[in-house]
Automatic annotation (TrEMBL):
Keywords: Membrane, Transmembrane, Transmembrane helix. This is Nitrate and nitrite sensing. The chain crosses the membrane at residues 6-21. It comes from Vibrio mangrovi.
Length: 268
């Protein structure tokens, strides 16, 4: 009888341990999927910003591309809402509403307004990703990784905010006041981006980013430096992509340490 009871207890303990393992795997999988989807939404927002900027600035017709991006954003946010924990679903519904407004009204905005609206949506995605990652690190008791991640995260956000302010100045760069602001933020962007070298040297030393930083240096040193708005936006797009690569590098290293590597981004 004692043997039977011992076996039942052992089976019960094993069953409970298996249940806990399944629950843990389910939690890890959900967090991983949230990061993968948010990462894709972030990329799609960047694509939408680029397409609408070119349409507003240069009259390019990108209706087909923008419709495709809108469909993908809707699809991804629907999936995010479906897999999010019940308590967190409202946050993803807010993101979806922001993106729907962003998609619907872009043609009525000025270039600087369009930049700000897209910038807010991109930062919203990043803050949601940050929340998922921090919760994940807490759950697995990796405070050592959490402190380093938070420090690097803040540097990425600071660089993005500085670049957004710089881009807003481009529209007025042919005025004296606008050029003064442009030079100021060129200095800020240069400093913030160079700080990211400590986080991901390869992302910042990429040829396109290096060339863009040289242009910023020229803008800082020469108030009369001649460059078109189109060239300026392209230069900032290269810097923005490098900042995004830094954050993606951070996420990739962490998810590989905690679970499995991130998949390649799906090109829209």
């Amino acid at each position: 009888m004692f043997v039977i009871i011992s076996m039942l207890i052992s089976v019960g303990i094993l069953g409970f341990m298996f249940y806990l393992a399944k629950q843990r795997e389910s939690t890890l999988q959900r967090k991983y999927e949230l990061l993968v989807d948010l990462r894709q939404v972030l990329y799609l927002c960047r694509q939408h910003r680029s397409a609408t900027h070119h349409a507003l600035m240069f009259g390019e017709h990108r209706d087909t591309e923008l419709e495709h991006l809108a469909d993908l954003l809707c699809e991804k946010t629907n999936h995010l809402i479906s897999i999010a924990h019940f308590d967190n679903k409202p946050m993803y519904r807010v993101l979806q509403l922001k993106l729907k407004a962003l998609i619907k009204d872009w043609s009525d905005r000025t270039i600087s307004r369009n930049q700000m609206i897209h910038g807010k949506a991109i930062r919203h995605c990043m803050f949601l990703m940050d929340e998922v990652m921090l919760a994940w690190l807490v759950e697995v008791n990796r405070e050592d990784l959490s402190d380093e991640y938070h420090m690097n995260w803040q540097q990425v956000i600071d660089a993005m905010d500085a670049l957004t302010q710089f881009r807003i100045c481009i529209e007025d760069m042919n005025t004296h006041e606008g050029r003064t602001r442009l030079q100021h933020y060129a200095e800020v962007v240069t400093r913030k981006v160079n700080q990211l070298t400590m986080v991901s040297p390869l992302s910042i030393s990429a040829p396109a980013c290096t060339k863009a930083l040289l242009v910023l240096s020229d803008v800082i040193q020469d108030p009369e430096y001649s460059i078109s708005a189109e060239e300026m936006y392209q230069m900032t797009a290269d810097i923005s992509l490098s900042i995004a690569h830094v954050y993606d590098h951070m996420l990739g290293e962490l998810t590989e340490t905690l679970y499995i590597p991130l998949p390649k981004l799906l090109i829209a």
